[in-house]
Amino acid sequence: MSILYAIIVLGGIGLLGAGILFLVSKRFYVKEDPRIALIEELLPGANCGSCGRSGCHDFACACASATSLDSLVCPGAGDEAMKKIAGIVGLDSVVTRPMVASLKCGGSCQVRPAISEYDGASSCAILQQLGSGTTGCPFGCLGCGDCAEVCNWNAIHIDPVSGLPVVDADKCTGCGVCVSKCPRHVLELRPKGPKGRRVWVACSNTERGAIARKECGAACIGCMKCEKACAFGAVSVKDNLSYIDAEKCKLCRKCILACPTGAILDSGFPVSAKEMAEIALSKQKNNN
Amino acid sequence: MRTFRMGGVHPPENKLTAGCRILDVDLPREVTIAMSQHIGAPAICVVGKGDHVDRGAMVGKASGFVSANVFTPISGTVTGVGKIKNAYGMPVDSVTITATEEDHEKDAERPLWTSALRSSDDIAAMSAKDIVDIIGEAGIVGLGGASFPTRVKLSPPPGKHADILIVNGAECEPYLTNDHALMLEHPDEILAGVRLMMRGAGVDKAIIGIESNKMDAVRLLRGRLEGDKSVSVMELQMKYPQGGEKQLIQAATGREVPSGALPVDVGAIVQNVASAYAVYEAVVFGKPLVDRVVTVTGPSLSGRGNYRVPIGMSMAALIGIAGGIPGDSGKIILGGPMMGRTIVNVDAPTMKGVSGILILPREQSARGDVYPCIRCAGCVLACPMGLEPYRLSLLSAHSHWDSAEGEGIANCIECGCCSYSCPSSRPLLDYIRLGKNTVMAIRKSRSVQK
């Protein structure tokens, strides 16, 4: 009998609670644009903030109430999703150029030897405050992997051999979270380029060539050879450091062949510039 | 015995060089003078390559209110103006001066500052402003380690008035003995410097705080002060961070500096004994800050001791004089083991703020293995600022800057008591320092936006 009372009392409380919940949900219902939910479904849900909003929901709300999508781009969702979102809200979509994070440092363990050991917390931000890090270069990558940690897309991992982060161009959405996290500012968003082909200077060292070379075998020494080799005016050397303007670059890769330290890297080409140079060298030998 | 109220630890003192006389280091043939040896704007270089400079000449001029002049300790020719690597491997603006044989002999034969530039009558007639101006001109900064320009501390902002000068002779850092040696060898000069600073700041009371492990210095200074009511020597309990500015004020006067406020808000000015000595030399001899006492120490260092070092001399040369880097060395630390920073470049020059060079063997300097936080609250009990270090370090590890600011991360004095007391060897201070610097930067950008 007592079990019956328990069922009646608990069941009664449950029913009463359900009734209150029902009334409250009807009375205090907040009308939300149904498109917001549709848009949010298309977004990656990483809440990375690279759109400039406080999260994916905020971005969806902004899209639903926007009069133009010019300043509303989610790099994580990609162009396809943005097109669908544009369809939902009835606006023209903005086609963006796909970007990819590129490491402006080529100082692997092999070419940039460590001069000190670090046994503190594994964080680039902390290491940066202490000084030049474990190598002599005060500009290059610190290698603790703050970028890999913040990446929402698992696009970055630290290569155990080189000690440098490797960006997976297929996974990278160009959201730029790693770029803003890097205390050394050695990551840069660059256009992915046709078929993923791109060329960039993998160095951030602005010291004089002789000093930079001492610290790192792959440092840009500001010798200007790349600037002279470029027929399109895409390469410029400022403060002993070369920079390639992706807008002007025609991907001819003459700068890579001209670089004496191998500070310029390429990606996405079927034959890398390094292999190209070796082929050319072997052909020359055969002719002789 | 007086001490501060909250927290603190007592690490092994290891004052290996206690009782070592101050040894004068021979003038080096080459010095490198960094333009930024103080908190505030870097000095602006006033010499060019090829210029000949005399000993004690200015090479960098203060570039603002919170800034300090820098001088050369040797005569010679300017052979380099530009970036060199500092002790932490970062490029900094500096001037390199190389002495020829002739310059070197001239400096050795005719040492400057042997006779007083100003007579006691002249000094007695000086106004407070005159004294502060001489201190500013001589480029004197706080020699305890923080390198805050002394002139700025002695000139309180309008509307604020200090009534007491607290002189820091606590030297609570393990290993360091440079202030102790200075107090034993130059008590009269330090007291004269203290009285000059009192006049400069317009205060009529001074307390010299000394930890009770230096009773010889306490007795010596007390002996010299008989009949003087305005200056007193106070014994302090041996507890780190007794020499922290806010802790020392509380120990000496019982006053508590509120969060975000300056010592002058509670009417106190804190200066180091080494700064007092530098003030004496500047006012009486007209000598700019070109040398200081540095403790070079370490358990396996053969020639450890207290050295009077020309500022700008290479640290490698100084360590060489002290017996060279021992084979078992793990870390070379500028300052003491608690607040000092490990360096990566021994070829860098010494600077005004370098109070000690500590070379620790590998097994003593290595960090322990990091284990999870066991919520023992050891760090909370140790924190002399009443903060919750375990929480602050977590908040900054997860980039929760707003919460960290709300929890008072900006009050951290970076004394290291939390990391020292952690049984799990967690890098608490590393993260708190990161959070504090980030919060400070956020605050700065906020004030710019306004």
How would you portray this structure in words?
The complex is a heterodimer of chains A (288) and B (450). Chain A has 288 residues and is an alpha+beta fold. Chain A has two domains: 54 residues, 3-methyladenine DNA Glycosylase II, Chain A, domain 3 (Orthogonal Bundle); 185 residues, Alpha-Beta Plaits (2-Layer Sandwich). Chain A has eleven helices and eight strands. In chain A, the strands form four sheets. A two-stranded antiparallel sheet of chain A has the order 1-4. In chain A, a hairpin with a 2-residue loop joins strand 6 and strand 7. Chain A starts with a helix and ends with a helix. Chain B is globular, with a radius of gyration of 22 Å. In chain B, 52% of the residues are buried. At the A-B interface, helix 5 of A face strand 16 and helix 16 of B.
C-alpha-based Rg of chain B, rounded: 22 Å
Oligomer status: heterodimer
Strand order, sheet with most strands of chain B: 1-14-13-17-15-16
Total of domains of chain A: 2
Based on the model shown, name its key terms.
heterodimer; A: 288 residues; alpha+beta; 3-methyladenine DNA Glycosylase II, Chain A, domain 3; Alpha-Beta Plaits; two-stranded antiparallel sheet; 8 strands; 36% helix; B: 450 residues; Rossmann fold; four-stranded antiparallel sheet; 32% helix; globular
